Amino acid sequence: MTNKEKYKQLCEQIELPLFMQYWWLEGVYAGTDWDIILIEQEGEIQAALPYQTDKWLWRRYVHPIEMVPYGGLWVKPELREDKEALKRCCNDIKTLLQEAKVGAYSQRFFPDEDLALAFVENDSKIGARRTYILKDIEDLDKVIEEFSRNKRKKLEKQTLTYKVEDIEPEEFYYFHVATCRQKNRRMRYTREMLLVIYEKAKERDCCRIVGVRDAHGELLAAALLVWDNKSTYVLANTFDHDHPSGGARELLTLEEIKHARNIHTQLDFTCSQDYLKNYGAKRHPLFIVRFGSLPLRAVGRLLTLFERHAI
After folding, report:
1. Could you give the C-alpha distances from 270 to 98, 234, 235, in angstroms and in order?
2. Whole-model pTM?
3. If you write DSSP's letter for every residue of 58-75 in order, what string do you get?
4. What CA–CA distance (Å, rounded) separates 176 from 190?
């Protein structure tokens, strides 16, 4: 049995975070060089690290991609409690990556997750990033009270003139392409990847694409939402930069909050931009594990990836 097959069985037995689920990785990494590193003891999986590699000249390297905002390591709860065993496990994983001819590694771990710290040894480095999260959203009126005055005014003005509705992935993709061109940005995922992920996630009832239209039916803002039992993630969102800012963005964000509230999860914007404070969202740290030296090509990709979200 291959490591992928073992990992698939593990995902069927326990509830892993969405971006570490086998079916999600299979969809996002389809057609690429990806695998799973497993640490086993007496036939039982103790830890797992999914990874996907790119190649530059002769070097293989691991770096984050757009549809996997968080990843990293899964370990058994018992292993988390034993710090020394956890460090040995991380060193074993690094050794296995080197044996797989992976010359450099960079991966973002989940917010508020301290597993990354177990990699701090030898040539490993830990980088700090952040995301914005809304945790306590059961009382919607209270959440809206935390919006900035400007955001509340825009909501009050446009709630009746704009329409919120679910849209199809094709429309979302081409709308996102058009809005990227307005800012001379390039798309960081393909139409095929979106369609595969959307289909797989819809089968499991953990995906929604929502849009905001004006009175003429013109799409002004849209977001791709996915979720697990803990968080609703704003995986991608965008808006028409040529349209006057009249509340469409605010209405979209409110719909994202309502959705997370309805399914009893927190809302993770998977975004580090400070404007999210205007919605009452709080900063939460996340760590990036790095070892080896990334090619310049990969560094450029990482820099553009960290400029996520137009709203």
Report:
1. 30, 6, 7
2. 0.90
3. TEEEE--BTTBSSB--EE
4. 11
